[in-house]
Design a protein that fits this description.
This protein has one domain. Strand 1 and strand 2 form a beta hairpin. It has 93 residues and is an alpha+beta fold. A two-stranded antiparallel sheet has the order 1-2. The protein contains two helices and two strands, in the order E-E-H-H. Helices cover 24% and strands 6% of the residues.
Length: 93
Amino acid sequence: MWCQFAQSPFAIDGLDQEQAQALLARLKAHATEPRFVYKHKYEVGDIALFDCLSTMHMATNTLHVPSQDHPDARLLWRLSTENLPLVIGKRAA
């Protein structure tokens, strides 16, 4: 059983969809409290790296950037590795 949460499907064994959605909403509310949020104000030359498997992340103020010359435009490169990190791979085994 799946529920839609933060653009990703999640299921929680032993919970129906309504219970899973409620618990996930509580967990997201906790994880996104200001004390846990880091907001970066980019400056020329900055590089930001994060682990997509263990970090909730989102861009702000970039939805309506009309061109790459706009002051809020960003250059993004996505780097990926093959397979899961060794630590996660061991946990799953």
